[in-house]
Amino acid sequence: MGSVSSLIPDENQIKDIQEETGLSKEQLQRLYSRFIALDKQSEGSLRREDLERIPELYVNPVSQFLLDAFFRDRNEINFLEFVKFLATFRPVDEGRPTSINRREAKLRFLFDMYDLDRDGVISVDEVHRMLEELLGRHGRPDQVLSIARRIVHEAALDYAAANGVAEMPSGGQIDSIDFPAFEHAMRNVSDHQLSICFLS
Amino acid sequence: PLEAFYWAVQLIGRLVGLVLLVATLLAVFNFSFGIRRLYIRILLHLFEQAVEKRRPPSRKESSDNLSRDNRLIQRHAKLTTEGIELLHADCASSDDPSKASTSSQKRPFHLSDLCVFVQSGIESIIEDEVTKRFAAEDLASWNLLTRTNKYQFISSRLTCYWVLGCFLRYCILFPFRMLLALTAVLYLVIGSLIIALLPWPGLRRYLNSILTPTAFRLFARAFSAVLRFHDVENMPQNNGICVANHTSPIDVVVLGCRQVFSIVGQSHGGFTGFMQKTLHRTSPHIWFERSESSDASVVKRKLEEHVSTPGLPPVLIFPEGTCINNTSVMMFRKGGFEAGGVVYPVAIKYDPRFADCFWNSSACGMVTYLFMMMTSWAIVADVWYLPPQIQQEGESSVAFANRVKRQIAGRGGLVDLQWDGNLKRSKPKSSLQEQHREAFRKRIYGLSVTDQMEGSGAG
Questions:
Q1: What pTM value is reported for the model?
Q2: How far is B99 from chain A (nearest CA, A)?
């Protein structure tokens, strides 16, 4: 119990967190209460298992990818990291291009979900993995693979065309796209589709 | 001085005995001085005066006297047991591409198809329908119990009230309630031993119809229970099946105040087991082992037998199978709805301001729970007896169960959920994950050949 109470942020910390995340004090309190509720072992931090216990997340087909991206470099998250992560998905604030919830940050997270080997590009294999996860074992492997190839190839061509590159070097299939190409492919996705609507 | 001490003790003992006797008689004759109701009114007044509301009462107070669902986020996408539910948010743009996905047309996969699942996933991390049902209900303003204090900053004035409250609850109310509860248990045990010795079944039944409800009434008074019963003309009859939402073992006491039931429940050890055995002496109940309960046919058979034997008291069954926190009704098991009897739905709603009645069996045992109940302010509950229902032509047991569940949720002001209450203990079935993948797959263009394979051995 001692470890938990030492984590209750004090007044100054709360102000800092508010400043950084754009969440109100009351929203932070609610999130804190949620954090505590999920932290069944009262460790003061959340592990993967704590989140997997949420039934709705558990049945989500991409939950493993989501959790992998969330727990990328660590085994557990404390409250600050928890809140910063969630605040990333607040709707974009006009006129604050470098804030925590900018579009680029959201797309980064999605990119990270695809990019399993963390090499900075999304390969055909990685798209294939995602498709497999979404489709389960029902998709025929060769069909799914060809869809994955098509997607990567088209996204790369699309990006190249938009940047005025007329022809592809050395012809043939392109088998990976980097973050700018991904951003370009997602250009028609509205901020609304990427955000969480916090109620005040 | 020593003599005076003994004399004082004797006097107090006699007074206490007298009070207990009076209380028992009041319970037997179902008469009340109205002291508890007055106490409740005073408490409510005190709460309003002493404690500022955590948030202004202007938000959506229409249906709120019963259940408040204070949301932190506006959901965009929910994964339910039926599929993906896309919800319109106030901040939605009108030509949202995600809305196109609700149509049944196939379309090619796009990298952004991930978004709706990610959104739903993150939203469920913040707020999901299920995990909050297994913890005490959120209160709009603090009710001066430490166990419900999540947000309130404690000023010195509040601390004062709280200390007084503690003193009242632990030092004055609790000992008295404890004595009353012991009296109730003794009354029940001795009474049922006597009745069980009598040779005439008719007489036994008659005496039990007096003994058990009065014992429960006395037990209810031990919690300072203020119970309001509505639509009493729909009370369950013999050979019927009474179904109710489940929050706590006290549900049995609440319903048992008015009539004798045959309770269907899991057999426990310890104090609970002792009470179960006591009750079983005078009336047939249906106790089963938890391992048996998964064998639905055993329960079904016993129910059918009970329902078809004339003159037996109505069965009391809690189809959720486990305790929920009284803000929602979770999936009903169909067992009680297959046995062919008349179903009498009952909705029970506890007022959370006076006690947190939810029993989280994995967090504390029965005795601890009863202790917490006896040191709460009071137990205030509304009970609605809904009109009897029978299975319609062509209606499956599951559909019947869901229909009744909807009625109970509606009447009690509870949220109607399809999720299984057993999620308190275990993870969802992987088939649910498959269900969502299935729905997604159907929207992907270019997998038509796989669709043709669907019929052969899918799943």
A1: 0.75
A2: 10
